[in-house]
Design goal:
The complex is a heterodimer. Helix content of chain A is about 50%, strand content about 10%. By secondary structure, chain A is of the alpha+beta class. In chain A, the strands form two sheets. Chain A has a six-stranded mixed sheet with strand order 1-4-3-2-5-6. Chain A has a five-stranded antiparallel sheet with strand order 10-9-8-7-11, covered by helices on one side. In chain A, strand 3 and strand 4 form a beta hairpin. Chain B is mainly α. In chain B, about 60% of the residues lie in helices and about 5% in strands. Chain B starts with about 25 loop residues before the first helix and ends with a helix. Classes of the chains: A alpha+beta, B mainly alpha. Chains A and B meet through helix 6, helix 7, helix 10, helix 12 and helix 13 of A and strand 4, helix 5, strand 5, helix 6 and helix 7 of B.
Chain lengths: ~475, ~600
């Protein structure tokens, strides 16, 4: 059915195509929640028909296809932007869930036909390869011949993600291997051996695959802060946060793997800080601070020697050198010349800060709670952090980030295990309920807080407030691996 | 010119690698799959054997594209499994080769690839890019990239793969598959405050609010998060981020590294890393020059000078920086410039000039060599002007090239020496005085004129006798510029000679104009004589000579000169009268009346 893919759309119709996706997605979500006779459905259908027919009038047809992580509309890749990401991701997810890979309108669409089509889609059962045939047959039965659709075509390397256990195993494998890799890299740098960039790239490519498919698994793992050696753990977490954030602002896949490698290496300069300083309890002297502050420069120099200068090395140096520089260019190393910090530098700085604050430290016995770190970051945006990036980061992490211990209005306790893509549902994540039994907290049922009671139309559960896991002696990471 | 193909390379014999399978022919898909595999192997092998500009490669590629299109028009996908030494399709081995070096199966297998899938709708560019990746992978070190990293980077729409990473794990990592194992690996105890949180600490130092900052984060709830508007992206913010993301895709983004390298130079006090940063700056410079980004290259070089002049550098650091500056004008970099200016006629000469002007005297030799090779006159001009500038105090460096066999190089060198205007270079310039090419001799005369002074007068006077009219005219003009009294004598001697009458009128005109321009009253008698008394010329020539003599007198402009003209307008001789009348008309009336 699809003839050709082209590069990202640059023409004037980009807006109208994005508009179509927004309206179509809204209609689909509406069809999941409401009856066909609902006034909202009627309104959403009319709005969507207008856009569809506008596109058909100018281009002769409308064809939407999912290929890997991207949506193609009339064979042009739909560009991801920070503000359109949740919609694109949401539509892609809803279609994948129903194993629908593509649909096409060959003629001007009538409102009643579109409504029929959308309700057929909305009510499909998940993951049946023949779903598209069912919808096709139903449309034929209704004599709607100008709407066609096809099954989802999975790429071989994507198949692993369709089994949630596989997905988890794959993400675990990537995560813990990355920690192992960091160990290996540090040993290589110390022993002045050649660094295996290839391995780092492959691991980060895997991480990008996993995050693009479903960011929640790896972001969940990133709430582990003290596995094996904390510095390695931290580097992997920064890589994950950075990739996930980069994905949301539309950084292309190839550059995302660079961003991941940059995250992994951002603190590599610390290997030259004497261990006595690293582990020193109490206040550091100003001389010792000088040494600590040298690590972005040392790190950049280590990276510089790793590989021939090119795109990857440039990005790695950007991230390594700038990860302690603030948005207003204060921080360290002190700059001799005012300039805008690089995008990768700003992303890594933000990811580094978030992960660092979430770790237990001497000053405070407990790590800071994620939602408070996010609040703090919002307060300091424009000064310490790029304000737009902070917003995207907060949207990504949710008000209750992965791993947050929450108290529900049902008096149940739970741990956030998946955030919602849509901003409107930012406070309604998926939660793994926990219960206390035999002197320990244990995993219970997984509940989606967007779920409503069919009778009352009210949400079944709502978060009352977050709790400090340390007070309950809960290690949230255990619930996320 | 593509290299000649030896006869044994004209075709590939795959019979040893392609085992025949009984019954294979009966199954059409298998047969077509086999055919496609053969084409793929041929195309890959051809890429390895022939130079990239060999047209035969196109033949293999076209065949492969056709085979793919044919196969995928009939079937939804073409998938082959990769064994250590085998490629299989539909569970039949279609290819087997156990030679580690040449086996295509092993080539994929060693990088962990276990399956390759080509899907319906595949486009030609995808097939060609796939071939490129295979070729590129063959020349990679295993620490940098491999087939998988490269194919992943391409993000094909119709080619996918299945790969394993296990072979990468020299020291296999234990993945904690249960809570117990996970807990075992957790490290207990809080880490020191400064570790990782130095970002905050820095802030605390500045604002003395170490107590406030972390405590802010352990408050019950940060109210900001409760207000959704605070983290809703505005359209401007989304657009700004989009632009930034797009600019990362601009190939020129790699040059952003320059800023950080200069920061490192300001901070680094250790030899090796400082040197590394400078080396990388050198690579940046190379890349900019190779791309013809001369303005950016000059900005970079200017910043290097600033480092040298404003940073507190130790001697060894200054030496390293000096070396970078020195190398900016050495042969390899000049060679990069040459490639660009010869290829792109539309290069910006101001940008090129801004880079070249920053070079030092060590660049003179390579630049002179460049002059000897450049075809672009625009570029030659820029180089000559640069050399005139950077060679100001080193004219002797140009002298060896005055004897060069290339006339145009000699001319350029003479031009440069003229621009430098150093009297000491006259003997060297003199060497080209009798050069066989009149364009060189003309340049010599011009250069001598620029240098000026009494020493050039005999040479310029001598040049008045040159066999080439333009040289003679140029010599006259330059003698005029020199303005020496002796020069006047030479000119007067010429215009009063018999042979002068045989000259072209343009040359005659130049000589008289120069004499007039010099303004010496000593010239008046000779001019008067030529205007009023000489009558042995033919009518036409006499008229021309008189006209020019009258003009020269007018240019001298003294009372004596004007009186001659006034007297001449009443002459019985028509040509004298006309010459004087016409000249006097050009002089404002008040003046002409004396």
């Amino acid at each position: 059915m699809i003839e050709k893919y082209s590069s990202v759309d640059d023409d004037l119709s980009t807006k109208i195509k994005t508009e179509f996706i927004i309206r179509f997605y809204r209609l689909l979500k509406g069809a999941i929640l409401y009856n066909p006779s609902n006034i909202i459905i009627s309104q959403y259908t009319q709005e969507c028909v207008k856009v569809i027919n506008y596109i058909i009038e100018s281009e002769g047809y409308l064809f939407l296809k999912i290929a890997r992580d991207s949506l193609f509309l009339n064979n042009i890749k739909v560009r991801v932007r920070a503000d359109s990401y949740p919609i694109l991701k949401g539509l892609s997810r809803e279609m994948r869930k129903r194993w629908i890979g593509e649909f096409r309108f060959n003629d001007r669409v009538k409102a009643e036909h579109l409504r029929d089509f959308i309700f057929l889609l909305a009510r499909l059962e998940g993951k049946h390869e023949s779903n598209y045939l069912y919808v096709k047959t139903q449309l034929e039965y209704r004599n709607v011949k100008y709407i066609d659709l096809g099954a989802l075509e999975l790429f071989k390397d994507e198949e692993i993600y369709f089994d949630s256990e596989n997905k988890k195993r794959y993400s675990n494998h990537t995560y813990f291997n990355a920690i192992g890799l960091m160990k290996e890299i540090v040993e290589s740098v110390k022993g002045q051996k050649v660094i295996n960039i290839r391995k780092a790239k492959r691991l980060m490519q895997n991480a990008v695959n996993a995050i693009m498919e479903d960011e929640s698994t790896l972001l969940g793992l990133a709430s582990i802060k003290n596995y094996d050696e904390s510095t390695f753990n931290h580097s992997v977490n920064v890589a994950i946060y950075a990739i996930a954030l980069g994905q949301r602002i539309g950084i292309p896949k190839r550059h995302l793997s660079h961003l991941g490698v940059t995250g992994l290496f951002h603190d590599i300069g610390k290997i030259e800080i004497p261990i006595e300083i690293i582990n020193k309890e109490g206040t550091l002297t100003s001389e010792e601070w000088e040494v600590v502050r040298s690590h972005p420069v040392i790190g950049s120099e280590i990276v510089m020697k790793m590989k021939e200068w090119g795109e990857l090395i440039t990005r790695m140096i950007d991230g390594t050198f700038e990860h302690h520089l603030k948005y207003d260019q204060s921080g360290y190393p002190k700059l001799t010349r005012k300039r805008k910090l690089t995008l990768f530098g700003r992303i890594v700085a933000l990811a580094d800060f978030f992960d660092a604050c979430g770790r237990p430290r001497q000053y405070s016995r407990y790590p800071y709670i994620s939602e408070n770190i996010l609040g703090f970051m919002l307060q300091r945006s424009g000064k310490d952090f790029d304000p737009a990036l902070v917003k995207v980061f907060v949207n990504m992490m949710g008000i209750y980030p992965l791993g947050t211990l929450v108290l529900l209005n049902t008096n149940e306790m739970g741990i956030v295990i998946q955030t919602q893509v849509e901003v409107e549902q930012i406070d309604r994540p998926k939660v793994s309920l926990i219960y206390y039994s035999e002197e320990a907290y244990r995993k219970g049922e997984i509940v989606d807080l967007t779920e409503k009671d069919k009778d009352t139309g009210e949400f079944k559960r709502t978060i009352m407030n977050s709790l400090d896991p340390n007070e309950y002696n809960i290690n949230v990471a255990e619930f996320l691996i | 010119m593509p290299k000649e193909i030896s006869s044994d390379k004209k075709a590939f014999d795959l019979s040893e690698e392609m085992p025949l399978i009984e019954g294979l022919e009966k199954e059409e898909e298998l047969l077509l799959g086999r055919d496609l595999t053969v084409s793929l192997i041929k195309a890959i092998k051809a890429d390895r054997v022939y130079p990239s500009d060999n047209p035969i490669l196109d033949v293999f590629r076209e065949q492969l594209v056709k085979k793919f299109q044919f196969f995928l028009n009939k079937y939804p996908s073409f998938i082959f499994q990769i064994g250590e030494f085998t490629l299989s399709f539909m569970e039949k081995v279609l290819y087997e080769n156990k030679d580690l070096k040449s086996s295509l199966a092993f080539f994929f297998f060693k990088d962990g690839v276990r399956e390759l899938r080509f899907m319906k709708g595949i486009e030609e560019w995808e097939i060609l890019e796939f071939l490129k990746i295979v070729k590129k992978t063959s020349s990679l070190t295993e620490m940098d990239d491999d087939f998988v990293t490269l194919i992943w980077d391409k993000d094909f729409n119709h080619i996918s793969y299945l790969a394993t990473d296990e072979f990468l794990e020299d020291n296999p990592i234990t993945i904690p598959d249960n809570i117990g194992r996970f807990k075992d690996k957790l490290v207990g105890g809080p880490i020191p405050l400064h570790n990782e949180l130095d970002f905050l600490d820095e802030e605390a130092k500045r604002d003395s609010d170490l107590e406030d900052t972390p405590s802010m984060m352990i408050e019950e709830r940060v109210p900001l998060l409760l207000n959704r508007n605070v983290y809703m992206l505005t359209n401007e913010e989304a657009e700004r981020l989009q632009k930034e993301v797009e600019s990362e895709s601009d190939p020129f983004f790699v040059f952003s590294i320059t800023d950080i390298l200069f920061e490192i130079l300001s901070l680094e006090k250790r030899h090796e890393p400082f040197q590394e940063a400078v080396n990388l700056l050198g690579k940046v410079m190379d890349a900019l020059l190779a791309l013809g980004e001369f303005q950016k290259a000059s900005d970079l070089l200017r910043r290097v000078y600033i480092v040298l002049k404003t940073y507190e550098l130790k001697d060894w650091q200054a030496k390293i920086i000096q070396k970078l500056i020195h190398e900016s004008g050495e042969e390899p970099r000049i060679e990069l410039i040459k490639k660009v200016v010869e290829k792109e006629m539309e290069f910006n000469s101001e940008d090129l000039s801004s880079y070249l002007m920053l070079l030092r005297q060590n660049a003179i030799k390579p630049l002179v060599h460049l002059l000897g090779e450049l075809n672009s006159s625009k570029a030659r001009r820029v180089v000559c002007d640069t050399l005139s500038e950077i060679g100001k105090n080193a004219f002797e460096l140009f002298i060896p090239y005055i004897d060069d066999r290339k006339w145009y190089l000699v001319r350029n060198i003479v031009y440069i020496l003229g621009q430098i205007r150093n009297e000491q270079s006259i003997p060297s310039i003199q060497k080209a005085f009798h050069h066989e090419d009149p364009r060189v001799r003309r340049e010599v005369v011009r250069a001598l004129g620029l240098i000026g002074g009494p020493k050039v007068v005999p040479l310029l006077s001598k040049a008045l006798m040159d066999e080439d009219v333009r040289v003679r005219a140029m010599a006259a003009l330059n003698l005029g510029k020199v303005g020496d009294r002796v020069a006047l004598d030479s000119l007067l001697e010429i215009i009063q000679s018999k042979d002068f009458l045989k000259k072209e009128s343009s040359e005659i005109k130049v000589f008289f104009e120069v004499i007039g321009m010099m303004g010496f009253t000593e010239a008046i008698p000779a001019l008067k004589h030529l205007l009023l008394y000489r009558s042995r010329f033919s009518r036409g020539i006499a008229g021309e000579i008189r006209k020019e003599a009258a003009n020269a007198l007018a240019m001298i402009g003294t009372l004596e000169a004007k009186e001659i003209l006034i007297k001449g307008k009443s002459s019985h001789e028509e040509s004298i009268r006309n010459a004087c009348l016409q000249t006097l008309k050009k002089i404002p009336s008040k003046e002409s009346l004396g």
